[in-house]
Amino acid sequence: MSGWDDKPQIIGYKQQRPTVAKGSALNSAQRSGLVVSSESKGAGQTKGPADHQRIAKLDRDDAPKPPEKIGQDVGKAVATARMAIKNAEGKSMTQKELATAVNAQPSAITDLEAGRAVPDQQLLSKLERKLNVKLRGAKNTIGGPLHPPKKK
């Protein structure tokens, strides 16, 4: 085939597109032999779950993880060290007194002792110095003295 039988392309001429017909108009157009398309223009996804469901599942999987909490061993170490410190009347130190001593909120001390607090290195260092107890580092050293006696 040399291309003599092909329809010539005319520049600037829009090719006629088939019209979309529905119902009885479609049937009559097909009987008369006209070029008719029965598909709808711009139809999206018709079968299966919607795309937003897949994206929502991905969002749930990629959600940022909540920050790590202080361990229960740190909370117990703070509570026991706080109780060991006695005031002039012989009573143990309260959470409010400890919070005032380290310039923190009383709720921060409560959350720390309950194991609900997010690690705050600045607060932990202040508590270590005030209570003279190690609160950071290896798990087996937490609760021990901050400055153990030197080995000879």
From TrEMBL:
Pfam families in alphabetical order: HTH_3, MBF1
Keywords: DNA-binding, Transcription, Transcription regulation
Record domain HTH cro/C1-type: where: 91-138
UniProt-annotated stretches for the region Disordered: 1-75
A GO CC term assigned to this protein in UniProt: nucleus
Polar residues composition bias: residue spans: 25-40
Compositionally skewed regions (Basic and acidic residues) per UniProt: 49-71
GO MF terms held by the record: DNA binding
PANTHER family per the UniProt record, alphabetical: ENDOTHELIAL DIFFERENTIATION-RELATED FACTOR 1, ENDOTHELIAL DIFFERENTIATION-RELATED FACTOR 1 MULTIPROTEIN BRIDGING FACTOR 1
Job of this protein: Transcriptional coactivator that stimulates GCN4-dependent transcriptional activity by bridging the DNA-binding region of GCN4 and TBP (SPT15), thereby recruiting TBP to GCN4-bound promoters. Involved in induction of the ribosome quality control (RQC) pathway; a pathway that degrades nascent peptide chains during problematic translation. Required to prevent stalled ribosomes from frameshifting.
Name of the protein in question: Multiprotein-bridging factor 1
Record organism: Kwoniella pini CBS 10737
